[in-house]
UniProtKB/TrEMBL annotation:
PANTHER family: HISTIDINE--TRNA LIGASE, HISTIDYL-TRNA SYNTHETASE. One of its GO terms (cellular component) is cytoplasm. This is ATP phosphoribosyltransferase regulatory subunit. Pathway: Amino-acid biosynthesis; L-histidine biosynthesis; L-histidine from 5-phospho-alpha-D-ribose 1-diphosphate: step 1/9. This function is generally fulfilled by the C-terminal part of HisG, which is missing in some bacteria such as this one. Keywords: Amino-acid biosynthesis, Cytoplasm, Glycosyltransferase, Histidine biosynthesis, Transferase. Belongs to the class-II aminoacyl-tRNA synthetase family. HisZ subfamily. It comes from the Bacteria.
Length: 375
């Protein structure tokens, strides 16, 4: 690692690396305003991760909101169409309510959006970039993939009222087999469909192992098409040797009013929640009057504070002390020599005892003297 990179926090290093990665694939940076009119978010509240939105009144009397989401603003302003795809990435802070705490938090995000005709290649490109993004953070990662077409296809067969459908989806996301069974029993769902729902919720593992099982659960064309798309993705991943660490998990479910196809979440060791999430959300573009498809993902950099929270063994490589009347030019030259050799250095008159160092030097009349050196 370069000396200047050592001064950056983990999330800052990852941010720079991800931006470089996205630009390699032709994505351009999108910069958005900190504020949007509240009505815009209120109309699309179900797309947001939290219904709580931080608002204030602007100087012109309009109700504004601190941005709780980046994707909505990108879609609102996109020029992407089926004829001309738009690839954008962003590095932004969003403001959301902290779950169960009654307070807002600032969340650092880096992500990308592909808006245009989302064909098989576009889907694969975004999945591969999600995989590469996780690898930038840690080699110990997992990318879990689901398909809303598969879930929606089975829900169509079950044909429950909207409120009961939400209960089933909640149970699927929690892998709550007993809950699925109870809701199905309450609503007179056929035993065969109940078993398929239970099988869907419990299915987890590598794509190669689980796709045959998913295929056995199919009971309509929509589900079959979803499995076929997942099989094509597996085939392409295997050709590039990228199928490892990619699992199938239908318990990943999002709002069916917005999400239409592949959805996914990424995890790394040391962080208990997903650090990356994304998917295909064509229905959002339809709602906003755009003639295009869309797929993208976000990486939640604020979670890296927990990942990189181990206390540093040292504050600085070298603590350089000097006596009263020391040669200032020689002192500056010594500090430069140390930094040129890739060390971090702190120069001060006294050792206050609150700085952890590897090496303690002192500038005296006869030159630099090693006072202490820790192994």
């Amino acid at each position: 690692m370069k000396p200047e990179e050592m001064l950056l926090k983990k999330e800052e290093r990852v941010s720079f690396s991800l931006r470089a990665l996205f630009e390699q694939y032709g994505y351009r940076k999108f910069k958005m305003s900190k504020f949007e009119e509240y009505d815009f978010y209120a109309e699309n509240r179900s797309f947001l991760h939290s219904e709580a939105i931080l608002t204030f009144t602007g100087l012109d009397g309009k109700l504004l909101a601190l941005k709780p989401d980046v994707t909505l603003s990108i879609v609102k302003n996109t020029k992407g169409s089926r004829d001309t795809a738009e690839r954008v990435y962003y590095n932004e802070n969003v403001y959301r309510a902290r779950k169960g705490a009654g307070e807002y938090k600032e969340i650092m995000q880096v992500g990308l959006e592909y808006i245009g005709e989302v064909d098989a290649y576009a889907t694969l490109e975004v999945l591969l970039l999600a995989q590469k993004s996780l690898k930038v953070i840690s080699d110990a990662y997992i990318l879990d993939v689901s398909h809303m077409g598969f879930v929606a296809g089975l829900m169509e067969e079950v044909a429950l009222p909207y409120a009961q459908q939400d209960r089933i989806l909640d149970c699927i996301s929690e892998k709550n087999i007993h809950g699925i069974r109870a809701v199905c029993k309450e609503n007179g769902v056929a035993a065969d469909l109940t078993e398929r729902l239970e099988g869907l919720a419990s299915l987890y593992g590598s794509l190669e192992e689980t796709l045959p099982q998913a295929k056995a659960l199919c009971c309509n064309e929509k589900m079959e098409q979803a499995v076929q798309e997942l099989e094509n993705i597996l085939r392409c991943l295997k050709i590039g040797g990228n199928e490892e660490k990619v699992n199938l998990d239908f318990s990943i479910v999002n709002d069916m009013d917005y999400y239409t196809g592949i959805i996914f979440q990424g995890f790394i060791n040391g962080v208990p929640s997903s650090i990356l999430s994304g998917g295909r959300y064509d229905n959002l573009l339809r709602k906003l009057g755009k003639d295009a498809d869309a797929i993208g993902f976000a990486v939640y950099l604020d979670l890296l504070e927990r990942f990189d929270s181990k206390e540093k063994e040292y504050d600085v490589d070298t603590l350089l002390l000097y006596e009263e009347g020391a040669d200032v030019a020689a002192l500056a030259q010594a500090a430069q020599m140390l930094t040129d050799n890739g060390q971090s250095v702190l120069v001060q008159r006294k050792n206050t005892g609150n700085v952890k160092y590897k090496q303690l030097l002192c500038m005296k009349d006869r030159g630099l003297e090693i006072v202490a050196e820790l192994d």
